[in-house]
C-alpha cells in the first residue's frame, strides 16, 4: 500500500480535498503542516485513511462518509460535523460543536471536547476520553455520547432519543434531560461503543451513568390542547 | 466576526521579536476582520514619563505641534511620528496640561491612549497594510494585543477600530457584541470615565478601567465583568504588567491559547498561533467559558 503525502505548506486545502475525491488509487494519505487550516479532509466519500500531522482548524472531516481520519493534534470548531459514516479520531482536544448533526460513524476524542459536543446529533457514536463542555447533546436525536470525564452545564437540553453515558460528574442537566437506569442492555450497548473506540476493558461500564430524554417536551400533551 | 490576538512574553530573549510575531499573528486573522486593524505594544518606558498615542490627520506639522506641546508641558516633549500616529512622550506630571493643550489647539487630533509603556496604533484597512504602515514588525516589548475588525455594532472608522484604551497602560480588544453597553456607558460616564465613541467594546474597556481604578486587580476586574457585561465577548486585555483573557459564559466567540515556558499566546483561531516559535510542543488549549485567565510580569 503506498501512501500519498500532501504537504499543506505547498498545496492548498482545496487541492488536497479535490485529490481525496479524484485519486481513488491511494487508500492511505498523510497530510503535513495543517497549521490550523479549515475544512481539511471535508466531504470524503471513500474508505481511505487520512492521517493529519498537527492541529487542524474548523470543520475538519465534515460530512465524512466511509473514511478514517486521524488528527494528531487538536481540532477546531465543527470537527466531523454531519459525518455519515466512517471514523474520526483526534489525539488532542476538540473545540466546540464536535460531531454536530452527525448521522453515523464513530468520533473519538482522546482529550476534551468543549461546548456543544454532539449538538443535534442524529445517530453518530461519540466517545470523549476527557470531559465535554456546556450544552452538549443539545437537541440530540439519536446515537450515543460517551464521556469518560465530566460534562458541563445543561447536558442534553431538549434531547430526543440519543443515549448519553457519563462516567464523571454532570454540572447540570438541560430541560427534559433526566438520569435513567443503567440496565444490562445499556451496559452491553456501552461496552460495544467502548470496544469500537479501543477502550474495551480500559474502563468499567459500571462506572457510567446514563442520561436521556424524559419525553415531556416533544410529545404532544392533551393538557396543552388549548394553546393551539 | 473579528479576529483577536495577544502575545505575552515570559522570556526576555524574545522581546526584540514581539512586533514581528504579533504582526504575523495579526495578518493571519485578516479573514476574520478585513475592515480595520489595530494593536497595542508594551515596549520600553521611562519612569516619570508618559507616552500619549495620538492620531493626527495627514499633513499635520509635527514641528509646530511639538512647539505647542512643549509650551504646555513646560519642558521636555519627544515626538515620534509613525504614519498617521504620533507618540508624544512627556513628563507624567505634564500629561493633563498637554492633553488640555491638544484639546484646545488641535481638535483634529484624537488621543488614542496613554501610559508609561503602552503605544496604540489603529487604522482602517487590511491588517497587513495597517501593520506595515506603523512598522509593527520592528517594534519590541514584553507583550502586545491586536485586533482585526469586521464591524457590526458601529461604523467602519478608525475610531471604531480596536484596541480601546480608557486608562493608563490599559487596553482591550473584543470579539463579539455587547447588549447592555448603552446603559453601562451612562453608568460609567457618571463615574467620570470618558468615552470617545458609540462603540460597545470601548464600554468594556471603560468598565475595566473603572474597576482597576477602584483598586481591583485585573483578575478580579475580569471576574466582575462576568456579572455586569451582557452579550457575546471574548476579551483580551493588556495592562502595564499583565495580560488577561475572558470569554462569556456561553462562549459564543472562538478562542485558543498556547503556552510554553517562553510565552503565552492567544488567537481567535489556532491559525494565528501556527507560526510562533516552538508551537509544535506548546500546550494548546481552549480557554474555558466564564473563566478568568491572566498572567502578570514579575516586577
From TrEMBL, chain A:
<dbReference type="GO" id="GO:0016491">
    <property type="term" value="F:oxidoreductase activity"/>
</dbReference>
<dbReference type="InterPro" id="IPR036485">
    <property type="entry name" value="Glu_synth_asu_C_sf"/>
</dbReference>
<dbReference type="InterPro" id="IPR012061">
    <property type="entry name" value="Glu_synth_lsu_3"/>
</dbReference>
<protein>
    <submittedName>
        <fullName>Protein glxC</fullName>
    </submittedName>
</protein>
UniProtKB/TrEMBL annotation, chain B:
<dbReference type="InterPro" id="IPR029055">
    <property type="entry name" value="Ntn_hydrolases_N"/>
</dbReference>
<dbReference type="Pfam" id="PF13522">
    <property type="entry name" value="GATase_6"/>
</dbReference>
<dbReference type="InterPro" id="IPR017932">
    <property type="entry name" value="GATase_2_dom"/>
</dbReference>
<keyword id="KW-0808">Transferase</keyword>
<keyword id="KW-0315">Glutamine amidotransferase</keyword>
<dbReference type="GO" id="GO:0016740">
    <property type="term" value="F:transferase activity"/>
</dbReference>
<feature type="domain" description="Glutamine amidotransferase type-2">
    <location>
        <begin position="2"/>
        <end position="298"/>
    </location>
</feature>
<protein>
    <submittedName>
        <fullName>Glutamine amidotransferase</fullName>
    </submittedName>
</protein>
Amino acid at each position: 500500500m503506498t501512501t500519498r503525502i500532501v504537504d499543506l505548506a505547498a498545496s492548498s486545502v482545496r487541492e488536497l480535498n479535490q485529490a481525496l475525491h479524484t485519486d481513488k488509487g491511494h487508500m492511505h494519505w498523510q497530510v503535513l503542516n495543517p497549521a490550523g487550516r479549515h475544512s481539511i479532509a471535508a466531504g470524503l466519500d471513500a474508505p481511505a485513511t487520512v492521517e493529519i500531522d498537527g492541529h487542524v482548524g474548523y470543520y475538519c472531516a465534515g460530512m465524512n462518509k466511509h473514511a478514517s481520519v486521524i488528527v494528531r493534534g487538536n481540532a477546531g470548531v465543527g470537527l466531523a460535523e454531519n459525518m455519515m459514516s466512517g471514523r474520526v479520531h483526534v489525539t488532542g482536544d476538540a473545540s466546540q460543536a464536535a460531531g454536530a448533526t452527525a448521522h453515523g460513524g464513530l468520533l473519538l476524542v482522546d482529550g476534551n471536547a468543549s461546548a456543544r459536543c454532539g449538538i443535534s446529533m442524529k445517530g453518530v457514536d461519540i466517545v470523549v476520553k476527557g470531559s465535554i463542555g456546556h450544552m452538549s447533546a443539545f437537541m440530540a436525536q439519536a446515537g450515543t455520547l460517551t464521556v469518560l470525564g465530566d460534562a458541563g452545564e445543561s447536558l442534553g437540553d431538549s434531547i430526543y432519543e440519543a443515549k448519553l453515558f457519563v462516567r464523571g460528574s454532570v454540572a447540570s442537566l438541560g430541560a427534559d434531560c433526566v438520569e435513567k437506569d443503567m440496565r444490562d442492555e445499556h451496559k452491553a450497548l456501552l461496552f460495544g461503543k467502548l470496544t469500537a473506540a479501543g477502550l474495551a476493558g480500559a474502563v468499567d461500564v459500571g462506572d457510567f451513568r446514563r442520561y436521556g430524554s424524559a419525553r415531556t417536551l416533544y410529545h404532544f400533551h392533551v393538557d396543552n390542547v388549548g394553546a393551539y | 466576526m473579528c479576529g483577536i490576538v495577544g502575545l505575552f512574553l515570559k522570556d526576555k530573549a524574545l522581546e526584540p521579536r514581539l512586533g514581528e510575531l504579533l504582526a504575523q499573528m495579526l495578518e493571519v486573522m485578516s479573514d476574520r476582520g478585513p475592515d480595520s486593524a489595530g494593536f497595542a505594544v508594551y515596549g520600553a518606558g521611562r519612569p516619570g514619563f508618559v507616552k500619549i498615542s495620538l492620531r493626527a490627520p495627514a499633513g499635520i506639522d509635527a514641528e509646530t505641534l511639538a512647539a505647542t506641546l512643549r509650551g504646555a508641558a513646560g519642558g521636555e516633549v519627544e515626538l515620534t511620528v509613525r504614519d498617521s500616529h504620533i507618540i508624544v512622550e512627556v513628563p507624567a506630571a505634564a500629561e493633563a496640561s498637554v492633553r488640555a493643550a491638544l484639546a484646545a489647539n488641535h481638535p483634529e487630533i484624537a488621543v488614542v491612549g496613554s501610559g508609561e509603556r503602552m503605544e496604540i496604533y489603529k487604522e482602517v484597512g487590511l491588517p497587513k497594510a495597517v501593520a506595515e504602515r506603523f512598522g509593527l514588525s520592528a517594534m519590541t516589548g514584553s507583550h502586545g494585543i491586536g485586533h482585526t475588525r469586521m464591524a457590526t455594532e458601529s461604523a467602519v472608522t478608525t475610531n471604531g477600530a480596536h484596541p480601546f484604551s480608557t486608562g493608563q497602560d490599559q487596553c482591550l480588544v473584543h470579539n463579539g457584541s455587547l447588549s447592555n453597553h448603552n446603559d453601562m456607558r451612562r453608568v460609567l460616564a457618571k463615574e467620570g470615565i470618558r468615552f470617545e465613541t458609540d462603540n460597545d467594546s470601548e464600554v468594556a474597556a471603560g468598565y475595566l478601567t473603572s474597576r482597576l481604578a477602584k483598586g481591583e486587580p485585573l483578575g478580579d476586574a475580569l471576574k466582575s465583568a462576568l456579572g455586569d457585561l451582557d452579550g457575546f465577548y471574548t476579551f483580551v486585555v493588556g495592562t502595564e504588567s499583565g495580560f488577561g483573557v475572558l470569554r462569556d459564559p456561553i462562549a459564543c466567540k472562538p478562542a485558543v491559547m498556547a503556552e510554553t515556558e517562553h510565552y503565552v499566546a492567544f488567537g481567535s483561531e489556532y491559525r494565528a498561533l501556527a507560526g510562533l516559535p516552538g508551537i509544535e510542543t506548546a500546550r494548546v488549549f481552549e480557554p474555558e467559558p466564564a473563566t478568568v485567565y491572566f498572567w502578570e510580569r514579575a516586577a
